[in-house]
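Office hours follow-up: a student asked to see two folded examples consecutively, so here they are.
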Amino acid sequence: MLSENAIRQLFERRYVPANCHLLGDSGYPCKPSLLTPYLQPRQGPQLNYNRAHKTTRAVVERGIGQLKRRFHVLHGEVRLRPEKVSKVIIACAILHNICKVRQIAEPLEDGDEDEDNDEDGGEEDIHIPQGNLAQSGLPYRANFTNLHFRDADGAGAADGNGV
């Protein structure tokens, strides 16, 4: 889906600032604009990076879960043209933010099976073979990891392979 996405084109054409990134799970190829977790992180920066990646994705997933609980149209496949779907999603997001500002409680649901609660960190155990095109983001991720997630003592440099 990302390969057809207009957001990808914004990154590729450099309309998005260089310090902004998308986060993906290990099912996506690592790219400079799409950061994925290390499959077998080493102690130090790689492990710190994976922890931050997982924490940040969990915040995003919780937000998506809140939207889906409040607006059931978002639960399954929305059978509209992409232009209309994007308008529906934007309208839901705006209405959700209004509800939050006005402290309108979310609907309660028993056993919300749509929430992705990846407590065990299982995504690090998934290995999806990726071709040469997918490898282009691995050196970028290694540099990003060493720059932003270095240990306090400065140890633990990644080697650029990422796996």
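And the second, which I mentioned at the end of office hours:
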Amino acid sequence: MALNWAMVDADGSKPVPLPEEKIWHTVIKCQMSLDFKDKKAKWEAKGTAFVTNQRVVFLRQPMLPAPAENDRASEHLRSLNVPLSNLVDCRYMIPVFAAPYYEAGVLPVPGGNLPNEGPGVNKGILKIWFLEGGGNSFRDAVEEVRNLAKGGQHGEQLRELGEARWVECMHPHTPRSSIPTLHAQPPTKLARPQAA
């Protein structure tokens, strides 16, 4: 997980994909907070949340200008980049009198501009509020991609589905029969050890 390390396109509206990365889902008009209570560190911003086949990315919108000194880490959140494997204890909450939100524990990595050293540093708490809807589909996209990534055998199909979802969003008149679907493999039976 890294703070302000996501590369963005020229207009700052979406992340530059990593090798073999596809954007799976996008939700605009979100509010995010990242809190490391044990280190008294907290960041907040409004922007856009992305789910890819490798990570969750949050980009502040509108983007802030670059810091005057490039060698110094910014204290303001511009972007947050969390590998899917670093999201733990995820849940989606729908309060009665507030916007729904996605909450997850996030595990920091060394060199990611976040507290990750010293005694007592466990994880930060990430919350993303969906101010104009899209929370259910965000949660579903994260879970779907994480489940497929855990299986390992569907890596190629995951990339194809990412492309298909892009085609479906950008070209809604494409016949659904031409969009690939994921076919689950039947479970294999494991041989039980026999008692001696």
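Two things to take away from it. The chain has one domain: 2-8+22-64+74-172. The domain at 2-8+22-64+74-172 is CATH 2.30.29.30 (PH-domain like).
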